[in-house]
Design a protein that fits this description.
Blueprint (H helix, E strand, L loop, with lengths): L3 E12 L2 E12 L3 E6 L5 H8 L7 E6 L2 E3 L4 H6 L2 E4 L11 H6 L3 H5 L9 H15 L14 H14 L4 E5 L7 H16 L3 E5 L3 H7 L2 E6 L2 E7 L5 H9 L17 E11 L5 E11 L3 E5 L6 H9 L6 E6 L2 E2 L5 H6 L2 E4 L3 H5 L6 H5 L10 E2 L2 E2 L1 H14 L17 H14 L4 E5 L7 H16 L3 E5 L3 H7 L2 E6 L2 E7 L5 H8 L6
Bound molecules: adenosine-5'-triphosphate and magnesium ion.
Amino acid sequence: MEEYIVEMRHITKRFPGIVANDDVSISIKKGEIFALLGENGAGKSTLMSMLFGMYEPDEGEIYIRGQKVNITSPAHAAQLNIGMVHQHFKLVENYTITENIVLGQEPAARFLGFLPSVDIKGSDKKIEELSRRYGLEVDPRKKIEDINVSTRQRVEILKMLYREAEILIFDEPTAVLTPQEIEFLLDIIRELRNSGKTIILITHKLEEIKKVADRCAILCRGKLVGVLDVASTSTKTMANMMVGREVSFTVDKKPAEFGAEVLKIEGRTVKNRDGLPVVKNVSFSIRKGEIFAIAGVSGNGQTEVADAITGLVPASGGKIFLNGKDITDMSVRERITSGISYIPEDRQDVGLVLDFSLAENLALKEYFHEPFCRKGILQNEAFEEHGNRLIKEYDIRSGQGISTTVRSMSGGNQQKAIIAREIELSSELMIFVQPTRGLDIGAIENIHKQILEQRDAGRAILLISLELDEIIGLADTIGVMYNGEMLNIAPAETLTANQVGEYMMGVKSV
Ligand SMILES: Nc1ncnc2c1ncn2[C@@H]1O[C@H](COP(=O)(O)OP(=O)(O)OP(=O)(O)O)[C@@H](O)[C@H]1O
Ligand SMILES: [Mg+2]
């Protein structure tokens, strides 16, 4: 049995209303990259949380290096050399990188458990060594609040390595990264494997599994469907096994019928906190029945364009018109009620109230008017009816239906809830920022269909995505942002994926 470093035998975990893991058995060899694939809500994060000591299984046994263990806490998991990078990071914003990495570690206890007296210099050095060895560059003295998502992730990885983790669990690490950052991370993961670590990788992206994983376990609604040898299995087979039906990778798109102009942006400029322009004099317009997609490498001003339209960031120049009306100086609430739906990039921060029920979240932008509110009284049946209908149409999966607390829902199902709510507003302008990030392939297919239906129903759609495939598949018109400027606006059929890719790198004409 020594051959396996991790064995989970007959694991069952129940939550109210749902069996999240149902008699799951997996065995992982030392030094392999083991992928975990499954639809949103299939039970991937739950299974790994038990290996990391966040939950204990209701039934079943866990063996680490052949020894039976009851992993009772993350600290206990760390003692067993198990580390995890979570789907939603867990870092302290106003601490430095070093402080976050050593937080709760041994040296702190020796120095009276008082953080400022930790040997920060020595830790800085150890962290620098680790980052050099694995190509995980960070400046240990920077604060978390001042670093971007991919650097935050590196901090999480360094945190595991600092604690000498041998079994590394990554929960959807690539969902938050750009294509370039993904390649980089996959290199790091290979490097970690080469140095003898065992890796468990949760991802929805089949190409990533194909690229790095040795074996892949597939979960479906809590049950293990199979464990595959990756090299000898096609991505299509994996997809079909996971969803339980044939998945089509292409979108069916009808010819566009454009109507009147809905959104018009004239010479918009947005400055960041330091007063530097991040959106420079950008102008474009979107008509009824048109999907206008903004392509670009992350951080080139795309999300700021969206925020400037919804009013989340103040703009310092230019004008915005919605159906001919000047909305430049309106509040966020006024803009939304004048007809804007918005699926934001950061769903946990802006999109949801995590401690409210699913029904409440699904009506979050409408509760103050009919049918949800009559004569100042909230109408329970209206919430229930609306919630149940959306759960069905958008296939939102959770333990207790409309009464589920959103915090307990799987990441992908939280995202589906936001999309459902925003599409249901039937706004004339719909802004989708990275709508399918973190969704399984079946759910992506469904959301793409919904976006196209809205376009065919005459809505104006702004799609901002880092996924070139998504842009090419859906867009009627494509604009590329580079360094705050809109470099090129052209009908989608006149551009190849290659050309768009080159504009994204700042090439001015192809
Ligand atoms: N703490 C909890 N309380 C109640 N239900 C929970 C809790 N954690 C998870 N669940 C439920 O268990 C099921 C499995 O969730 P899990 O987060 O493991 O899914 P997942 O496979 O990681 O999905 P995703 O790809 O969307 O992240 C879901 O239906 C979820 O609602
Ligand atoms: Mg998950």
